[in-house]
Amino acid sequence: MLIKRFSELCFEEALSLWNEAFSQYYSDLTMDLERFLLKITNEGLSLEHSVAAVHENKLVGLVLNGFREIDGKMYAWNGGTAILPEYRGMKIGEKLIQACLDIYKEKNVDIALLEAIKENSRAIRLYEKMGYTTFEELAFLHHQGELNAPFPVSSDFITIPAQPEELDKLTFFNKVTAWQTQIPSIKDARVVLLKYREETAGFAVYRHVYQGGALSGIMLYQCVVSPELQHREKEAAQTLLDSVFSPINANCRCITMNLPVTNKAVYDSLIEAGFAVIVGQVHMQKAIQQKNAAVAGSETAAL
């Protein structure tokens, strides 16, 4: 068994493995070459620092890695672990993850992050064996068409559009969210700020998807209310959600990306409006440089 760098492979071979590994997965993660290249670009994945397992000249597994420096700390993200079904149970995943951890140390990574499907106990056990621990649960929620009930809106709040860079000024803006929900991962990100008594009391980050010139989807990446507004948190959250998801038509698909389940005001408001959980994930981390082990609160594994 050889462990190679992803940059030594051809895209078509890697894509074929990815699609075969995820063809019977918990959710459809198969893609064409264009989408695969977009994933690599949008999520800041490094081919040079991603790894692949080769057995008897056949590509049988891979791990995609991304890196970001945030507020002086280096973060690494496992953007997908894929192993062909017939090669699972041969400790290939363990060898790939160890190769990644070695790369993280070479790059002076402080914290390694990943997400795993809650039901994928085999992958979670592997990550735990390699030193990862779960620190939060995440959910993808989905709704198709008009909402069962509109989000109640309070006249005490107003929402205004903003630029992503304005979020850096907010004391309650957390840059270290799930990798795909971080601003650098979101192409054409839209931001809306919630104002209460002339102060910014919340924000949402989302994106519109168009098909044939018509709005076909809305992706919600972050929706946060200031801790100072706890007494009216749900009202504030509903006002933000109304700004993001209204108006929508019968053909519009609405999805939340890796919403922390502990964000109860947002989560409960979405469920009440008719959204349903389609995928649950655990968010896991591992301290690489022990001196920077503290982290303020990635992707999938076909193992």
UniProtKB/TrEMBL annotation:
InterPro entries: Acyl_CoA_acyltransferase, GNAT_dom, MshD_Acetyltransferase. PROSITE patterns: GNAT. Residues 1-150 form the N-acetyltransferase domain. GO terms for molecular function: acyltransferase activity, transferring groups other than amino-acyl groups. It holds the Pfam family Acetyltransf_1. SUPFAM superfamilies: Acyl-CoA N-acyltransferases (Nat) (SSF55729). PANTHER family: L-AMINO ACID N-ACETYLTRANSFERASE. This is N-acetyltransferase domain-containing protein.
